[in-house]
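Memo to structure team: turn this sequence into structure tokens by end of day. - J.P.
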Amino acid sequence: MILEIITPEANLFRGEVNSVSLPGLDGIFQVLNNHAPIISSLKTGTLQFETKGTAELMSPSLVVSGANVTIEIKGGVAELNNNKLIVLAD
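Reply from structure team:
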């Protein structure tokens, strides 16, 4: 699936990923390829994802360990539709 992470300051990431873990208001949840459409509010926490192939890491604040990337967020909104996940994060 395609993941795009956008903050008010910059576009942090755009690329193909295998999975994404998000800090939802009711707890951490994971999104995989072909997941049902979803819209969720996000709380302060860690957003983690596993890249698939090449990806545009657009920020030095991303912590990369192999194919795994970790970002600390303060909240936001996530929308998944047709295997494209857009995260609007603070």
